[in-house]
């Protein structure tokens, strides 16, 4: 397993571009940024090169100034906007060498959400440039009230319907613990679908070993399953980020 740093949450006291320097100094080789679209691509490219970092993930679609919620892949009658925005995310990802795009579904808008999401994700999987994997991440009610993709059972159903090799599950220990009560059991049940892992403890999305998730057991489960991908810290450090990085040795 390979540790990565989510720079949208870690080192919150630093200006955005300085977080790349801090991640490299802490020993990370890769970073992810949830919504990097407001920063010019050349600036991010330069700081990645200067620190020998790889950027591995971003969210889609981009945030806008139109008042839309974060994500609308499952919102009925929004297909044209989805296609336009996901293509913008593809261009951004290609420019930065990103390999994972988390496709955000938006809020639950009724029974039409599921078929809309399946159609949109199927289209996006076919349109995605080579080397990019699309992910679905179930998000818990505590942090994203009303969000449509709020259950691992639902994520598995959608991925089975789309049935594309470049679509998979984004597993987050915080959300898994909050949604299903046992992050380790949730990983074990859905491990064949997992393409990317994010770490946070429950119930406060704090650093690993500050809450109820059994990370030693979780890391053992990931190793025994053969997972050898990125494991990204996505949590609120609650103090100096450097003091919370003991999980890197376990990974």
UniProtKB/TrEMBL annotation:
Xylose isomerase-like TIM barrel domain segment(s): 20-249
GO molecular function: hydroxypyruvate isomerase activity
Keyword Isomerase attributed: yes
List of catalytic residues: 137 (proton donor/acceptor), 234 (proton donor/acceptor)
Pfam family, one: AP_endonuc_2
Keywords: Isomerase, Pyruvate
Record's keyword annotation contains Isomerase: yes
GO annotation, biological process: glyoxylate metabolic process
InterPro entries assigned: HyI-like, Sugar_Epim/Isomerase, Xyl_isomerase-like_sf, Xyl_isomerase-like_TIM-brl
Family as reported in the entry's similarity comment: Belongs to the hyi family.
Protein name, entry field: Hydroxypyruvate isomerase
Family annotation (SUPFAM superfamilies): Xylose isomerase-like
